[in-house]
Structure formats: structure tokens, C-alpha cells
## 1
Amino acid sequence: MGAAGGVTVRAPAKINLELRVGPLRPDGYHELATVFHAVAVFDDLTALPAEPGEGISIVIHGPQAAAVPVDASNLAVRAARLLAERVGIEADVRMQLHKQIPVAGGMAGGSADAAAALVACDALWHTGLDRDQLHELAAELGSDVPFSLLGGTAIGSGRGERLTPALARGEYHWVVALADHGLSTPAVYAEIDRLRATGQAPQPLEEPEIGDRLMQALRAGDAEALGACLVNDLQPAACSLDPSLERALDVGRKVGALGGMVSGSGPTTVFLARDSSHALDLAVALTASGAAVDVRRSFGPVAGARLVEAIRS
Ligand code: C5P
């Protein structure tokens, strides 16, 4: 991979197998206890060298490309800029992003792009930063970005940026049901605060915790037990803002999903299947019900943001 070449990085979507949301902190974030799980829905980002002084540009392809900004607010652009600033070099790069992860879907699509840009520009610019330094930059860019770098299955605390890899066995089959619109993450967090303040959702633990049963299920590689433990404290908030999500959750229950829930802040819903043929049944039922605009089969865990291709010029 010479300086004149480009690099392609693939970054995964995530779901939260358990998402426990504590009270609002003075800094505007919520204390979390969560189990992140990277699934095989990917964004691919290619970083190509640019002329000195050209700056950062990004071109986006994929079904929802039009919904993603290409200006300085784009998370991949912000990641490239932050990395260049931190190592003291000119930020010149042409990025091409192929987006498959739903936009504003609660699957950390923006975070995946930021992680992909960090890894790609790090390789392109030969910054010499180590994994810990990239992790620090990732945490500055967003709460979920460090996990997009790490991948696999991991316990998250703090605002989600403090990670410990989880002991997990087995491969899990997921069905991902997409909505035709997004939900704003801050709006969903604000809604859970409102529901709690008005007694419409249970009060949070001061220090949220992950349940033992879920960790046991992961250690045993027991999909059935895992399905019974899936839980998301943000689900009532996402469903309150978008009551149509209940329909997809109902279909999942009726077709015997081992578990189903809203992913992160939604509106994507995810369902755990027994195996790949059960996943196909679930996907067919969800598609036929009209409760989702698009349904995808996936599996996890998968690796975090990784270099997949080096292009020599
Ligand atoms: O860190 P990130 O930029 O992804 O967070 C987006 C928004 O989600 C925050 O501004 C905040 O409103 C909300 N959030 C939160 N608590 C967290 C993570 C995110 O309240 N732990």
C-alpha cells in the first residue's frame, strides 16, 4: 500500500443486545450499561489520495445516499479532519462511501462511517497512531464510534465509549426490519426522560447494569436464552414517537422470533432467529406484513472497522 494508493475499509452496523439507560448526566448524556453486537450489514469507505491543498471530499452511493450530508457535518469528514488535526498534517483526501447501513436507523451507521474514515485515513496518511489513540479520537466523534472500531460483542459503559470485549460464543442469525424514515437519537433520549418524568416509564437505576442471564446466554452460545433477555430501555421512547413500530414487533412475536426489539434509538427493529431458515421465514413474514419497507437477513458477531483492500495506483 504505497502513498500513492488508496485504501478501502469495511465497518459494521451494531445492535444493542441489552441497552440500559441511566439518568440524564449534567453533560447532556445518559449513563449507559449496554452490550454491543456487530452485525453483518456494512458501510464500505475508500480513501484516495488528493492533491495538496485539495481538502476533504466525500461522494456517497447506496439506496439512502441522498439522506446523508456531504458537507463538514458528515461524520466521516469530521473523523478525517480530527485525525489530520491531531497528527498535524494537511487534511487532503477523497472519500467514497458505499452505504448499506440504514441512515438514522439506530444501528450506528454514522458511527461506522466515522470509524471507517479513521482507519482508512490512518492507513492512507501513515499516521503511526496506535489502536488506543484511534479509540480516543473515536470517542470524541461519538459515543458509538469506539465500538464501530472494535466490533464483535462488547460491554459498553459510560456514554457507551468505554468498552470491554464480552465472552461470547456462537453465531446469531438476525432479521433487520427497516422503517421508511429515521428517528433522531437526541429526540429519543429526550422522550425517555419525558416518559420517566411523567411516570409513563420506570425510573432508571442510578448506575445501570447488564443482567447476568444475558451474559450467561452469550457465554453458552444459547440463542434461545439470549432471545429471552433482549431488552432496550429506549424502546418505549422510540415506540412513543413512532407507534407503527409495534406492528413489526407484533409480527416478529407471531412468527416465533426468539426475541425482538427496537435497535438502539430506532426505528429499525431486529429479531433473533433460531437458524438461517427460520430467519428466512421471519423475513418473509415481515415483508408480507408491510410493517417494514425493507427487511434484511444478517448475522453476528463480525469484526469492527477493517481494511479490506489496498488499491495501488
Ligand atoms: O455521542 P453521540 O453524538 O452519538 O450522541 C448523540 C446524542 O444522543 C447526544 O447528543 C445525546 O442527546 C444522546 N445520547 C445520550 N446518552 C448517551 C449517548 C447519546 O443522551 N449515552
Note: The chain has a mean pLDDT of 95.
## 2
Amino acid sequence: MAATRLWHRTGRLLEIASAFGPWPGVYSTSPAFAEVLRMPQKQLRKVVYPLRELEQHLVTDSRPGLIEQRLFDPSLEDIGRAESVFAATVRNRIEYLSSAVRLDHAPSLRQPEVCFIGRSNVGKSSLIKALFSMAPDVEVRISKKPGHTKKMNFFKVGKHFTLVDMPGYGYRAPEDFVDMVETYLKERNNLKRTFLLVDSVVGITKLDNIAIEMCEEFALPYVMILTKIDKSSKGYLLKQVLQIQEFVNTQTQGCFPQLFPISAVTYSGVHLLKCFIADITGSLK
Ligand code: GDP
């Protein structure tokens, strides 16, 4: 039934895509959504709905319902509409705004804000680049040199929202956090959602736990993104997803119960994440 609906919608969108030619503002660095819609059904499901794809491989007695928390399950039309929020055009300027080392240096903005946090090397820059792949002029700045000051980088996404790339936390995390990340998370008034990146190959580390505890302590609404899902076999990924899902279900209060598995290499899950961000920031009105 769901598959039929999916195919009905896909067929409809394909008609729309072919009627209008290439989608406006879509650049070649990411598979434009119209191209994704032309993929065979199995591949399309893997790219657009990675959790659904994983669910296919659940054996019936393996803790039913554990990854069935699909609270956010938009149609292909909705995902297609959200793409335009992330496509840079003259009327929808997507640009780097500024960097800050302290919250009082951060731009004062009214529009909703989302931030991305995660330990160094988790794949944060790669994900942000993937989100901005239809805004080729945006440079995602990376400052990885040891001793180089790490900053919060602010990006404006049209009139919709700002996206903040927070410094990655490493073994020197506590200092960075107290000075910057913690204050930002605690005091940023327009912060709508925090996206916490966890490496799906590694699982939740001690450093991730510090960030989770912080989000919990400040009662922030946050969302867990599982990165690099292209790196593991389906079996290993499923095991990791089930473990992390169980952790979220039993150990957290503020974490959105649905995980977002993504790959910045295959773009799997990236379109769905864009749609979620567009939705929670009210960009789809
Ligand atoms: P950051 O330190 O969190 O910003 O991490 P980066 O985005 O720089 O990524 C760290 C390393 O992981 C780089 O070598 C990336 O090429 C690699 N990487 C990032 N995302 C992915 C992914 O989705 N799949 C794979 N296979 N590698 C990734």
C-alpha cells in the first residue's frame, strides 16, 4: 500500500519534472532531486528513506518497533518542495554570514536557527557541504589545524533560517565547550533545534555522551544524525542503528525519537534531513 502510494507520487513528480525540464537553481554537485526521482524504486528508497530501507532487513523477532519510529515521514512532494529552500537563487540567497568565538560576537538574528555539533572527524563539514550542494558559492570553512581557533560559523539560508556549524569537539573539548558551545546552547534565544552528529561506524562515544548530557541538561530539543552510513555493511549498520535507537528511547528525554542516518558520499538521507530542517524552521509555509 505504502509502496503503491510512493510510486503514484513518484510517477506524478516525474510528470512534473519532465514537464518543466531541469529544476530551477539545481546544480550538478548533488544528484538533483528530479534525478533521484528517476532512480529505480529500490535505489530511490535507499537514497531518500534510508530507515525504511533498513527496516526491510529487520527479522520479525528483533525487538519490533525499535526503528519504526517514523514520526517524520514526508511525501516525495514535500521533500521536493524542501529542496527549493536549499537552492540558491537571486531571491533565495544562501551565504556565509560570519564567524564568532563568543556568543556576544554572534550575529543578532530573529529568524529561526539550527546548529550542528559533533566530535571532530564525525563528518560535520561534509554533511553541511552536502546540505549546501545547491548553493555552490557557499564555502564551508574548516579550521582543523591544531592550535587554530575554532569558531562558530553562521550561514544564512534565504529568509528562512540560519545554520550554525559549531566547532568540532575533540580531546580538548571541555575548554571549547565551556567557552563557546555550552554558552551558545544555553543562551541562544532563536535556536530551534540542535543536530548532534554521531559516527554510525563508531557509535556513541564518551565525547558524544558529554554533548548528549549537555543537551539534556539544558532541555534542548535535539536530533541525532548518524553519519557515514555508506561505510558499513547493512548488517553492521542495522546493529548500530538498533543500539543507538534503544539508547535514545531509554536514556534521553529531549532527543527526537527518530534517527536520521545519512551519507555525505551517496547523499542517502540528505534530502529527508533537508525536508526536516525546512519543516521545523517553518520554511515550507
Ligand atoms: P568533520 O571534522 O566533522 O567536519 O569531518 P569531515 O566532514 O571533515 O569528515 C571527516 C572524514 O570523514 C573525511 O575524510 C571525510 O571525507 C569522511 N567522511 C565524511 N562524511 C562521510 C560519509 O558520509 N561517508 C564516508 N565514507 N566518509 C565520510
Note: The two ends are 29 Å apart (CA to CA).
